[in-house]
Amino acid sequence: MARKVFVLNGPNLNALGKREPGMYGGKSLSDIEKDCRKLGNELGFEIDFRQTNHEGVLVDWLHEADDAAIGVVTNPGAYSHTSIALHDAIRAISIPVIEVHISNIHARETFRHTSMISSVVAGAILGFGPNGYNLALRALSDICNN
Question: Which of 20, 23, 60, 93 has the highest CB neighbour count under 10 A?
Fold first, then answer.
């Protein structure tokens, strides 16, 4: 029986493939979802893949994941740098969360260097492009199998 993993995406990630391809690559969020589902299947995960442009929805989904999933992979986009609400929601749940960023936030604008959620996630993967999602799923598999 597959174990459920939520893959939660924040604002503007619905524009991947069109938005700044030099920074984020040419894959769409739909392409990334297909990759996650394929690897998830190999790892024995049922992938629940979602995207929203609304901070409170991400908070609600994190709370939902605590009851329905064994872990979360999240790319909260710009909310990583601003959201104490996401920090608190991740801190409040009991399942591991892996933070993903397609770009290396430390090699970008200064205001992106700080993530409000990094201190409460199990780990962070950044700068490996869309492959970061696969790396996060593998890390989550390691965490959940140990």
Answer: 93
**Nearest residue to 100 via CA among 117, 83, 84:** 117
- Can 133 be counted among the known catalytic residues? no
Q: Which is the catalytic residue, given 24, 79, 87, 133?
A: 24
**Catalytic (active site) residue 79:** no
**pLDDT tens string 93-136:** 999 999 999 987 776 777 667 798 999 999 999 999 999 999 99
In the set 79, 87, 101, 133, the catalytic residue is: 101
User: Which domains does the chain show, CATH number per domain?
Assistant: 11-145 (3.40.50.9100)
Q: Count CB atoms within 10 A of the CB of residue 134.
A: 20
CA pair distance 74, 98, nearest whole angstrom? 6
Q: Name the pTM for this structure.
A: 0.93
